[in-house]
Amino acid sequence: MSETTQGSSATATSDQKSVPELQVEREKVSADIEQKKANITDLETNVIPLYEAQVKDLSTNSALAQQVQGTVDKSILEQRKTELTKLQQQLTDLDAKIAALLK
Q1: pLDDT tens-digit map of 45-59
Q2: What are phi and psi of 17, to 5 degrees?
Q3: Domain assignment present for 73
Q4: By the 8 A CB rule, do 80 and 34 touch?
């Protein structure tokens, strides 16, 4: 219940922000989105393929291959994608608030 109360006050405070304040917040969210995209790209192109190649190379040593396979856990990638989606929604909400204030 306290989360709902906190969420309501955060929304009320956010609604009372001026356009410049919302634009500053928007810039921060945009920067966070770009950083998250870069992290996802790095995981997809550099980290995961490297570990997958190591697993393949270590196939003769199954215990070591299993240990490396555990490191390839793609749940981190999925978590980053979920975080990115939330940030993109936050950016959309901020854009809507700014547009409403500019009317």
Answers
A1: 998 888 778 777 777
A2: -75, 150
A3: yes
A4: no
Beta carbons of 26 and 97 less than 8 angstroms apart: no
Dist. CA 89–CA 85, nearest whole Å: 6
- Average pLDDT for the chain: 82
Q: 26 is in which domain, residue-wise?
A: 18-102
Measured distance CA(89)–CA(38) in Å, rounded: 18
Within a domain: 9: no
What angle in degrees, to the nearest 10, is found between the helix axes of 75-102 and 19-42?
Answer: 160
Q: What is the DSSP string of 73-95?
A: -THHHHHHHHHHHHHHHHHHHHH
Is 95 a member of any domain?
yes
Count of domains observed in the chain: 1
Residue 12 lies in a domain: no
pTM: 0.68
